[in-house]
Protein 1
Amino acid sequence: MLVLIPAVLSTDDVASLRAALDGAGNAWVDGRVTAGHQGAAVKHNQQLAEDSALARELGDRIVARLERHARFISAALPDRVYPPMFNRYATGNAFGSHVDNAVRLVPGTRGQKLRTDLSATLFLCEPEDYDGGELHIDDGDAAQSVKLAAGDLVLYPSTHLHRVNPVTRGVRLACFFWVQSMVRDPAQRRLLLELDEASQRLAGTAGDERTRAQLLNCYHNLLRMWSTV
């Protein structure tokens, strides 16, 4: 299931990040440096060096926003978040169809690993700033192309094949990262999200408070049953 999460970053947040990325200079490197064997053959973009001070600073700022974003927490049920990374697609760049590595080594740790349950792309350019560059996600039964406003995020299961279509005009800037969720199964995460959303909608009405309490009870008992922590 794809989950669109609007306004993870404010307009001011995006402008600040864009200014920093525009001035990154030599910190931009070939995007294939972090690609696996499968991805390296089809990846043509630039990436902010993962070990650069700028990447760490900007990534920390984004994680701080995610920690306060209720819809992200509800949809991802994050256990751990991979340090956010940043990519740049100039005209002619693309990333062909691939699936993300199932397990990643967390940089700056002594061999700590993260299971990639969910993939996330946070858009840092407005759709009219560039042509092409859609994130195309194929879940086996259907496919969706995603091109969101700056500051908006899409979250989707890392098991899905996906690609970034060629950019034909302008520059596409984005942040991307992975989430190890407390709930590994995507169907279980979807049920929990739907329960949480129903409970929140009920809270905004004159509905029966006892009914809402029962929904919350079901939610937390299922989370307790399915959580890996």
Note: The first strand starts at residue 3 and ends at 5.
Protein 2
Amino acid sequence: MVDDTHLRALAPFLPPDQPAFVHRNLALAGTVVRHFYPDAAPEALFARMRRRLPARFWEPTPGVVVDVAHNPDKIARLAEELHSRYPGRRCRFLLGLSRSRDPLKVFAPLLPLATELVVTSASHAGQDPAAVAEVLKTRFAATRADADPCRAYQTARAACGEAELLVVTGSAYMIDQALNPDPFVRETNACYGRRYKQNGPIP
């Protein structure tokens, strides 16, 4: 169990520009490694963990935050980080949801921060954006659906006011479809689920 004591002890070695939930994850990983290798120097250990991962509280352009949070716990951590890093700032959310997750359970932590929810497709195993939007509307009226992730992203960006953030979150498949600049790669990635359904799992 990683608690504040671990975080305080390891804080000098953690990358300063990472979100709080990433610090906790790194502290967990470092604590486990040092349990088995107590002589491991924390400076060397965390020097290898400084790389930023795309779509983990990633800011590809000013005013846009992208994070692959896709379940209630991760979405709650994202909401905490948005509140901490951008206090008082409102957010327009572009969302995609996959598999059988409950939209309200997953996205409820975002609602107090939101000016609008835009639900789009998540390609592989994605839920129908119109159906997800209807569920979210029961708790947040300013919700709409746009099945095209690229168009939804561009429209949401254009609609953002100067004081707003656009936050793209939910399914990693949706994020790929919304932000990947290569149309061929987008199509290839989106085909994954169709190929699986047609041919079955590879033996």
Note: The radius of gyration is 19 Å.
Protein 3
Amino acid sequence: MTQTNDPELTILVSAGRSGSTYFTKVFGEGLDIGMYTMMEGQFIAPLYHQLSQYGDLQQRENLVKLVETVHGTLPFRNMKRISKIETHPGEILERVQQPTYTEVLYAALCLVADKLGRRHLGFKAASVDILTLHQVFPNARFVHIIRDGRDVSLSVAKVHWGPNNVYAGAVYWKHYLAAGKRGRDFLQDNYFELRYEDILQKTDLLYRRW
């Protein structure tokens, strides 16, 4: 793994209904990572592609606007609504070391980890965003969670946001699986695969890898 001054960051990626909520809990508690079940990074890739709207982040008012946007995303709203943990944009801003999107996100993740009493940083995200997330966090460690496609297709057909039949669910799974695996060539030693079924049967396999 490349040695850098960036904080250690672990990103769990998967298709929906692949066990990411379960593994967020396992990683958070077992590996002291600042994750909670609603610590999701779905906003990161879309916001990355909209950064031009914020102008030069060297200008403090632009940086403040970006920080406020990040603080207004679902993970922070859920911290207050579900976990009753209060945060403020200023708590992120005071941690920003350099006026960049990546540094704003690191500052936000550090705040989450501190509020949860954890030492390391992490979140979960969709595997289709893996390459964009790698651009934002070039030194992050990615864990690709893979669940049997038959189980995923059955599961997503039951939720309001998913495909409405098993065939469409299988297509969905294949798309997310392929997207996640495309990250291997770019991430190399910073890419890991976890098979959902294997870990459920023998959880200690998870801790042997770190």
Note: The chain has a mean pLDDT of 92.
